[in-house]
């Protein structure tokens, strides 16, 4: 893929106390690219996502979004968070708001959109994730898979430049995993830039441009899915794959 970098991490390091959780991370995510991040539990995948959205500060190195360094605080940081949407394992929907209100909330508050415009756009997004008919329900009335699709619509409502997914299907019953992955595949086909932490190797094979394998805070491999799954180079990756495949 031609390199038109949207997210760039250069020599990024972070500790939690004595634990060196991100070690010399260098990663470029091109515009429209889908990068799947895999690796053992505790290898730093979530921390990497949180660093990109600046939910976690890093100690050294540079993180650029669209060529600009991540802002430290204030208005610029809020703007950054709006530009990089995040979808978590736990859907974090507001229980006392309807599905439509969950999706409209941030555009109304942060983007200062008019209510009618925000609701119209939210309906379009709910249609895109196949949930227009659930707009007036409350999260508890939906299945886990449906709630996660609402969370994706909510992230899209801010018109983000990129979406980060941290194990978006790990909390779901098996029969609901595919409906969420299908929405993500469609986003990928539509050209959304995505960083996806997942254990869904089928998704990695079919939707990722690159697979990044992390272990002990390092990026150990960064290759095409084809290369990674057929001929992993490192012992760590071979060992990991032998356990999950
Ligand atoms: P992964 O998502 O790959 O499982 P994480 O990024 O969540 O890994 O965590 C990497 C390491 O950092 C783990 O050893 C974890 O226990 C530790 N860690 C994560 N968050 C914190 C925190 N807020 N404080 C201290 N240690 C943390
Ligand atoms: Mg994690």
TrEMBL record:
Residues 7-241 form the ABC transporter domain. The keyword Transit peptide does not apply. Coiled coil: none annotated. It comes from the Bacteria. Its main location: membrane. It is an enzyme of class 3 (hydrolase). It is found in: Cell membrane. Keywords: Amino-acid transport, ATP-binding, Cell membrane, Hydrolase, Membrane, Nucleotide-binding, Transport. GO terms for molecular function: ATP binding; hydrolase activity. InterPro entries: AAA+_ATPase, ABC_ATPase_HisP-typ, ABC_transporter-like_ATP-bd, ABC_transporter-like_CS, MetN_ABC_transporter-like, P-loop_NTPase. It is a peripheral membrane protein. It holds the Pfam family ABC_tran. Its EC number is 3.6.3.-. Belongs to the ABC transporter superfamily. PANTHER family: AMINO ACID IMPORT ATP-BINDING PROTEIN, GLUTAMATE_ASPARTATE IMPORT ATP-BINDING PROTEIN GLTL. This is Glutamate transport system ATP-binding protein.
